[in-house]
Specification:
Strands 2, 4, 5, 6, 9, 10 and 11 form a seven-stranded mixed sheet that branches. By secondary structure, the chain is mostly beta strands. The chain is 3% helix and 46% strand.
């Protein structure tokens, strides 16, 4: 049983920072790409950032480039999303995702929802204006 647990969400002011963590458990995760997606009620779940197994390849949505940083610690089976310079439009439920099929060497694959096999329950991020 694979489980992804997101932590670190909450309420923050515009311009502030939050750091999300996602801890994976239930199996070994060697070779698995991981990513962060977000969703609001009126929109499809969209890729925010993703990272290859090795960390050498990353993807960032244009809306978060320069503000968010994704990283991972494979020793801890954990992926992080450092969110700086937060904006109200960042308000969403943020979901952690893990791919059993792809290592993430292909950037296009990293941003596709279909590439991911397991999802966390989500953590709410609210940015006040």
């Amino acid at each position: 049983q694979v489980q992804l647990v997101e932590t670190g969400g909450g309420l923050e002011q515009t311009g502030g920072s939050l750091r999300l963590s996602c801890a994976a458990s239930g199996r070994t995760f060697s070779g698995c790409a991981m990513g962060w997606f977000r969703q609001t009620p009126g929109k499809e779940r969209e890729a925010v950032a993703a990272i290859s197994w090795s960390g050498a390849n990353t993807y960032y949505a244009d809306a978060v480039k320069g503000r968010f940083t994704i990283s991972r610690d494979n020793t801890k089976n954990t992926v992080y999303l450092q969110m700086n310079s937060l904006k109200p439009e960042d308000t969403a439920i943020y979901y952690c995702a893990l791919s059993l099929k792809y290592s993430g060497n292909n950037s296009y694959t990293l941003r596709r929802r279909g590439a991911y096999d397991h999802w966390g329950q989500g953590t709410q991020v609210t940015v006040s204006s």
